Amino acid sequence: MEAIGTGAAANVSSEAAKGIFHHVKRHITYVIFYQKIVDKFEQKHRTLIAKRTSVQQDVDVAEMNGEKIKADVLDWRHRVEKVVTEKEKKVKDLELSRKAEEAAATFDELIKDCQFEGVGYHDVPGPIVHPDFEAFKSREEVFDDIMESLKDATTGMIGVYGMAGVGKTSLVKEVERQLHEVKLFDSVVRAIVSRIPDIKEIQDQIAYSLGLKLEENSPVVRARRLFERLRKDKNVLIILDDLWKKLDLEEVGIPFGSRHKGCKILLTSRDQNVLSNGMDATKTFAIGDLENEEAWEFFRKMAGDSFESDEELRSTAIKVAEKCARLPLALATVARALRNKPLFFWSDALQLQGRCEINIYFFGVMLYNNYRGLT
Residues 341-367: pLDDT tens digits? Predict the structure, then answer.
């Protein structure tokens, strides 16, 4: 009987040992299994963090180059930040759990989504703000007439003319700035033409304002690409500044008239004939010199009021201002060159003006270059 009892006890012990072994085995398997999950989580986490760092480096470079960041890149970065902070916290709190496996899968998805062909882009540049623009009362009517003409569907080409230094460029820059604010046109672009037109340079200026890259060398191909791009805008204004002679719009790549009725053109020139006969402008507006009072007030503003307490200096300043022929550019250039200078500078300038009256604009530039570094 004792032998039978002993055998039974041995069998029970053996079964218990087997049970404990299987339990320990399952536990070890469980630990190993989830350790692999956690290891996978940590690996994916490190990979995702490295991707995030790499994308951030690309973003930093793009922003330094003046680029805007693409929407999909911004969305990816937002998702990464949210997932990393939330999932990482959950896995840390729950340690070995299925949350690690879920997090690893989410990380893997984000890693796969990180396939960007560049993170930034060059936005279409806006107009440069010109804080020095003076809204002269004598120009208000012309300015308003230009703005009204641009709203007129029957007016396709508008011209502004006047002598050098009268303020044509400043006026159209202000037109450009205000049009960007009121959103009258889908695009407003400006290009400087100059005495000897460079077609490729004009094309580049217009293309840059549109955010278009013209990498071709052939002017004909470039004109075709520019033409097609401009036609995509329902309403577009092209400002061509400083025309000296007729410009072939087709050669540049500007669709006009029946080829694009939504395209308007604003021109500036010293010669009304270039606008009316050469370019067939529908309307032209003349800009003359300033009125005496506003010319003097503008000169005082640019020169400062340091001469107000010195009668001789004030008298000389008035004569210098008169020599500037009421031209805004000459007034501004001369006044800035003489700002806060003593009497002998003003006297020298007055003598110099007497020898340079044939071209007051170039006198102003010369005077500014001579005096800008002196005290």
Answer: 888 888 888 887 665 554 554 455 555
Question: Reading across the β-sheet that carries 263-269, which strands appear in turn?
Answer: 187-194, 236-243, 263-269, 157-161, 283-286
**Residue 293 confidence (pLDDT) above 50:** yes
Query: Residue 84 is encoded by which pair of tokens?
Result: 């990393």
Distance CA 200, CA 38 (A): 61
For the packed helices 311-323 and 343-354, what is the interaxial angle rounded to 10 degrees?
30
Distance between CA atoms of residues 147 and 166, nearest Å:
19
Determine the 3-state secondary structure of 238 from DSSP.
Answer: strand
Count the neighbouring beta carbons within 10 Å of the beta carbon of residue 194: 13
Token couple for 122: 């060059």
CA distance 333 to 316: 17
Q: Which residue type does 312 have?
A: E
- Which of 87-101, 162-176, 236-250, 341-355 shows the lowest per-residue confidence on average (mean pLDDT)? 87-101
What is the DSSP track for 249-310? Answer: HHHHT---GGG-TTEEEEEEES-HHIIIIIS--SEEEE--PPPHHHHHHHHHHHH-STTTT-
Interatomic CA distance for residues 114 and 57, integer angstroms: 14
pLDDT for residue 45: 75
Give the Cα separation of 46 and 80 in Å (integer): 12
Rounded Cα distance, 165 and 272, in Å = 16
Residue 279 contacts residue 243 (beta carbons within 8 Å): yes
Q: Return the bridge partners of 191, or none.
A: 240
For the CA atoms of 292, 293, 295, 297, the dihedral, rounded to the nearest 10 degrees, stands at: 160
pTM of the model: 0.64
Model pLDDT for residues 310-326, shown as the tens digit of each residue: 889 899 999 989 888 89
C-alpha to C-alpha distance for 161 and 150, rounded to whole angstroms: 16
Q: Residue 189 corresponds to which tokens in the numbers above?
A: 């672009």
Rounded mean pLDDT, 2-31: 53
